[in-house]
Design brief:
single chain, about 650 residues, 19 helices, alpha+beta
């Protein structure tokens, strides 16, 4: 090797040395950056690969009645979750679990679908599992790799069916809920309120979930459940105390006739809801931890619609219960007073032009004043009041009284009543020549026609009659900032007069006999109004709204009974509820085993001319369904409305 070659070798050696030194420095810098500068980042990533989070459900806040009794609480329960290393292994493990404990195939498909969306999260197999289920799974734990069983609070409704539509139920949040942002802060797997008070006050009741970690190996298989990392405990939800009287709520459930559809509400003159009941009902405990698909299909497929809250969602013609509203409008405008008699006495009907409008009582009521007309529920009297008011005033004053608006009660899914705000509604529905203001006004005056109300909306009106003449927003949880009340526009004397008329209904009118003497001589004076809503789809619906004590009301109770045929069928239930609340469970028994009421009212048989196309538009529809609000109601037959 000559000198030149020796120099080239040294140069190459130096270059190689610098390359190696540079590479070493780069590696050293990378190691320093990874181990020192970004230590926390990569440690977290490593921990994330090693640890899998498992959410810890927060105990929901309890729901209490106004005396502090429990409506909804938490009891110890178990949640079963499954951690799988591969997506395709999940169905096999779930079907294996189904051989040990019942597991619906539809539920398996849903778990697989949800796991594809969050593959690194444990799959909830059972929420709110009972001890027997957990015991069977523990016995066969070796067959189910990745199964995680943990104790969690379980929602319980001790009163069960009695409070279903009031309190609602809880369930796991779904993708639709998250997409529509119905539950702020919720994630897949979070338990949220789905109906009733649970839904309305979900944010307050839910609390904040905790988290614990389980350790997995490089293949994602479970290594250990406990001690892998510190646990972040959940924060309990806040309790809510309602205005509900749980004793009254359960009592109404106990006296409601089996198989009968309808609803009942009890409210104080100050707007406090003491009971809210809908029938048929269901057991909200079935939803805790996930309702079986077969039970869900059964509830949704039931023609009686047990999931429908008839107290705030179903709409019915208010019938003769609306006659008090007609009277209030006319008194407010100075058209009538308590002693006003109409030009045409009731002889069983009223002829207007070439049409004959029947009263429910074909014998007639004679020449009566307002108090007597309310007591006997005289249609002819109120036909003439409606004509004096005119359709425009009926619409304007009805809107002012809130008959076209929701009440704003603190429950989700309240339906808006149907009450037109202008003539445009009729023109759009029937065409400009397909209706007349006279026919519409006469129908409205007796609570029929294009007027369908929810029970809660009628209760708001009667709450004002029983109170100081101010309609307040009904509430179940006292609001921090209540809405301002709306006045009926009546004087104290006028209010007292209408209450006197309602007392006459019970003393000698269509609900005569509702005020009964007990075996000890005690008498509870009750005032109220019956109503029978015409129903083109079957038997008529029955209404009764009453309050007591009649001279200084403390509670208003109203009920609607679908296909009840007559308002008097509801009277005994309302009377019993009033007695239970005001006199207590130890009140002396009535002197009769059955409260008798005057049930001589007849549903009129329309004459052919009453039902001709140009004289009687179609009848109002049946109550709405839970799937969608009911369509606008068409008018009922213009023959007289029974009380």
């Amino acid at each position: 090797m000559n000198g030149f070659d020796s120099i080239r070798v040294r140069q190459r050696a130096i270059i190689a040395q610098w390359v190696l030194t540079g590479a070493f420095l780069v590696l050293l810098g990378a190691f320093f950056r990874t181990q020192v500068v970004q230590h926390e980042k990569f440690q977290l990533r490593a921990e994330t690969n090693r640890l899998r989070p498992v959410s810890l459900a927060a105990p929901r806040g309890p729901i209490l009645d106004y005396r502090g009794r429990i409506i909804a609480e938490n009891v110890p329960g178990y949640t079963v979750k499954l951690l799988t290393a591969r997506k395709d292994s999940l169905p096999a493990i779930l079907h294996r679990i189904a051989t040990v404990v019942p597991l619906d195939s539809a539920a398996i498909d849903d778990m697989v679908r949800r796991h594809r969306q969050t593959p690194y999260q444990p799959v909830t197999v059972f929420g709110g599992a009972d001890f027997a289920t957990v015991s069977r799974l523990e016995e066969h734990r070796a067959l189910f790799p990745g199964i995680v069983i943990q104790a969690e609070p379980k929602r319980l409704y001790p009163a069960g069916k009695a409070v279903a539509h009031l309190v609602g139920y809880t369930a796991e949040v779904n993708e639709t809920d998250l997409a529509e942002k119905r539950y702020p802060g919720a994630e897949l797997g979070t338990i949220v309120g789905k109906a009733g008070l649970e839904r309305e006050y979900d944010v307050r009741l839910r609390g904040r979930e905790g988290v614990r970690y389980i350790e997995v190996n490089a293949r994602g298989r479970l290594v250990r459940e406990e001690g892998a990392s510190p646990v972040l405990p959940p924060e309990s939800g806040r309790p809510i105390q309602t205005t509900i009287d749980l004793d009254l709520q359960q009592f109404i459930d106990s006296i409601w006739p089996a198989g009968m559809r309808g609803a009942m509400i009890a409210i104080t003159p100050q707007g406090e809801i003491r009971a809210l009941y809908s029938a048929p009902t269901y057991d909200p405990n079935l939803f805790t931890g996930g309702i079986p698909a077969s039970v869900w299909r059964e509830l949704n497929g039931d023609s009686a619609k047990p999931l429908l809250n008839r107290a705030i969602y179903a709409r019915y013609p208010p019938a003769s219960t609306f006659k008090l509203a007609t009277a209030a409008m006319a008194m407010k405008l100075g058209i009538i007073d308590l002693h006003t008699r109409m030009p045409q006495p009731c002889t069983g009907g009223l002829r207007v032009g070439n049409r004959y409008w029947k009263c429910w009582d074909k014998r007639g009521h004679g020449n009566v004043d307002l108090v007597q007309a309310v007591a006997g529920s005289c249609d002819v009297y109120f036909y003439q009041v409606g004509l004096r008011l005119g359709l425009k005033s009926l619409l304007d004053e009805g809107v002012a009284l809130g008959f076209s608006d929701k009440t704003g009660i603190d429950l989700p899914s309240e339906a808006r009543p149907i009450y037109p705000r202008s003539f445009e509604y009729f023109d759009k529905l029937y065409g400009p020549r397909g209706w007349t203001p006279i026919s519409a006004a006469m129908n409205f005056s007796i609570g029929q026609g294009e007027n369908t109300q929810t029970l809660i909306n009628m209760m708001r009106f009667y709450q004002a009659l029983a109170g100081n003449g101010q309609e307040v927003t009904p509430f179940i949880v006292p609001p921090e900032h209540p809405e301002p009340p709306r006045s009926l526009g009546l004087t104290e004397e006028q209010l007292a007069g209408l209450r006197t008329a309602l007392i006459s209904v019970v003393e000698r009118g269509t609900a005569a006999g509702a005020t009964r003497r007990s075996s000890s001589g005690e008498v509870l004076a009750i005032a109220g109004k019956t109503g029978t809503a015409q129903n083109p789809h079957g038997k008529d619906h029955g209404w009764f709204i009453g309050f007591a004590p009649a001279d200084h009301p403390k509670l208003v109770v109203g009920g609607i009974m679908e296909f009840g045929e007559h308002g008097t069928v509801v009277v005994p239930l309302v009377v019993k509820a009033l007695r239970r609340y005001l006199l207590g469970p130890d009140a002396p028994p009535m002197d009769s085993t059955r409260i008798q009421v005057n049930n001589t009212d007849e549903v009129p048989t329309p004459r052919p001319e009453d039902l001709s196309p140009d004289s009687a538009p179609p009848a109002a529809p049946a109550p709405g369904t839970p799937a969608a609000p009911a369509p606008p109601a068409a008018p009922a037959p213009t023959a007289g409305s029974p009380t």
